[in-house]
Design brief:
Layout: E1 12-17, E2 20-23, H1 29-48, E3 53-54, E4 57-58, H2 67-90, H3 94-99, H4 101-118, H5 120-123, H6 148-157, E5 159-160, H7 172-186, H8 193-201, H9 204-208, H10 234-243, E6 257-258, H11 267-278
Antiparallel strand pairs: 1-2, 3-4, 5-6
Amino acid sequence: MSNHNKPGQAPDTGHEWDGIKELTNPPPKWWTICFYLSLLWCLVYVVLYPAIPLVNGASKGVLGWTSIGELKAEVEKYDSQRAPYMAKLEKMSAQEILADQEMLNFANSYTNAIFGDYCAACHGRSAQGAEGRFPSLLDDDWLYGGTVEAIEETIAYGREGNMFAFKGEIPDADIAKLADFSIALSQGNKGDAASWALYEETGCGQCHGEDAKGNTDAGSANLTDSVWRFGSSRDEVIRTISSGVNQEDVEGSHNAIMPAFDERLSENDIKLLTVRVWSLGGGQK
């Protein structure tokens, strides 16, 4: 084949497609330099770090670096930084922590993982709760009280709700009237005399109080606010009154049990979780 290359042009490889010839031009010098430098870096990396798989592991590298070693070093660094704070927190009461902004900030930061592991599954990552299932920790509505002492007791020993099931005990019409009365109270309506009379006759006032504002000793809900433990629709309210709470032999009864953490968490962790929950915005003095 005759050579039709231009003067000074590199010879071609003999490959041609659609009039385009493949020439044997060498790559630019900068590219060649970078290529050999990358080969050199690969060699340096193999010498310094674990890189070559062997029968019983891998080459160690002269630096002796491992990802596990780096992790342990970071954990030790973190532990050394928080150790003074933890030592101080263990000697402080929950009230003293709440009064010390620096220690409060540390306590809330420290409990991020604990809250995520033990609380978020029910109450949500942001403690917003789930309507009809788990209460929000962000408001100031507390079934068992929102003081530091009450919250600490709740976390340590758990809670188990209890409400009598009225289905079959009183007429369905009265259950419907009680549901309408409860909804009206939550909307700011004071209710009429007949509704209050039915409320007392059926024994609702024994748990929820004569003023229907609830009782933290019994864990009974405040019926005069707009916060609902098991849903605010008329059907849900009728279900709650009819089937009750934690009534094992009653179909449709709500389940309301919070586990105890006194055997899962240390006293210090429970105290710090108490501080976190109290400071979410709804804690009571």
